[in-house]
Amino acid sequence: MARKQQTRKRRVKKNIETGIAHIRSTFNNTIVTITDVQGNVISWSSSGSLGFKGSRKSTPFAAQMAAEAAAKGSVENGMKSLEVTVKGPGAGREAAIRSLQAAGLEVTAIRDVTPVPHNGCRPPKRRRV
């Protein structure tokens, strides 16, 4: 029996003017996701997906490269302006925002949505180096 060849749909370029950039900056990595206003993902990138390994993933330079890669994908879809939501305490927060502006996207608002516990879970123990 011959197997039917599956046909894949080509990715259609959407023409989206405004969107939201979600920057998740942890102590280990930086993830940049660009969505439309409804929350549908247009492009994303992270320090780890760009080939940074180990402690280099958490650097501001790695965050800058991740933001550039995500911005490139969104500009191809016709995006011009962004709102930025930043979450987490990592080193790449400001570098990622600056990189989005340098990529030709107009940043209209910056919102910090870092979750703050109202004395919830016990934090991890302090490092002794």
* CATH homologous superfamily classification: Ribosomal protein S11/S14
Q: How much of the residues is beta strand, in percent? A: 25-35%
Overall mean pLDDT stands at 90
Specify the number of helices: 2
Describe the structure.
- One of its GO terms (cellular component) is ribosome.
- This is Small ribosomal subunit protein uS11.
- Keywords: Ribonucleoprotein, Ribosomal protein, RNA-binding, rRNA-binding.
- It comes from Terribacillus halophilus.
- Part of the 30S ribosomal subunit. Interacts with proteins S7 and S18. Binds to IF-3.
- With 129 residues, this protein is of the alpha/beta class.
- The protein has a single domain, classed as Nucleotidyltransferase, domain 5 (2-Layer Sandwich), CATH 3.30.420.80.
- It contains two helices and five strands.
- The chain has a five-stranded mixed β-sheet with strand order 3-2-1-4-5, with helices on one face.
- Helix 2 links the parallel strand 4 (81-87) and strand 5.
- Helix 1 packs parallel to helix 2 (93-102).
- It is globular and about 60 Å long.
- The N and C termini lie far apart (64 Å).
- 31% of the residues are buried.
- The mean pLDDT is 90.
Give a short summary of the structure.
Part of the 30S ribosomal subunit. Interacts with proteins S7 and S18. Binds to IF-3. GO terms for molecular function: rRNA binding; structural constituent of ribosome. The chain is of the alpha/beta class.
Q: What distinguishing features does this structure have?
A:
Ribosomal_uS11_CS, 5 strands, 5-stranded mixed beta sheet, alpha/beta, 2 helices, 129 residues, Nucleotidyltransferase, domain 5
